[in-house]
Design brief:
alpha/beta, globular, eight-stranded mixed sheet, four-stranded antiparallel sheet, single chain
Length: about 300
Amino acid sequence: MEPKKEALLEIQNLSVSFRMYAQGLGQRDLQTISQLYLTLYPGEVLAIAGSSGSGKSLLAAAVLGILPPNATVQGRMRYKGQPLTPSLQNRLRGTELALVPQSVAYLDPLMRVGAQADGHYRPRLTEKRKKLFQRLQLPAETERLYPFQLSGGMARRVLVSTALVTDAQLIIADEPTPGMSLEQALEALGMFRELADKGKSVILITHDIDLAFAFADRIAVFYAGTTLETALPADFIAGPEALRHPYSKALWRALPQNGFQPAPGFQPYGDSLPKGCLYAPRCPYKTQRCEKQAPPVTQLRGGEVRCYYGS
């Protein structure tokens, strides 16, 4: 791997919990992210893979500072070396930090989509947005439509354009390609790659891990609200022997082209997290040490892994 530049975004031991009502008026804290780590460098596309409920979208909300009021965030987040405080998040959100949201419900149903994509940049960037619409195969008349007049795939492409039209240094794309044709998805991901090649940084949250292989510089594997491994796309292409964590190997085997072999057991959630390694209940290599204490993050073969016995 080439020597890394100074990190754009550093996340260490991030935990997110939500104050919830239990029986009657009792309250409890539901932890959904625990000891999550992530590092993003300028000019990089970092893909995040993992099953539903693994904390991918919550990470995006935590970085942007758009979690609901009942959320508690602990740990360290730094942007360009500065603590990513709520005040800094408010100042950067929509300018240096941009989001491609997962849900098309983010589009205002009462506003034409062209004006929404232009946002507060209108009319300065209207021409840039029109070119983006063209590249994303959105017909010229799309700008005059309302969200209810769009197909699911069209709405996704409009959401992609709302982030790409900005001058953001960090773009978080949360499942940007569902509903798109393969050609449209490849074009959208190619545009993220172009931004990274110009020095911007992209976090690509995706279930389409196969598509990410062609565009990402690294892939982070999330499980039950934490990071278990960070690896090169080439490691996933090479197969289980090149990966480091048992879950990453299981994830590779679960891909349709690799046999579609599901791992036994289920991913734990906030109210049933094990004490030690979060993957221990499903891991065929677990020991008592794994069940008692969560392993630290270690460097291994050019990647990172959270496992006592990573190979």
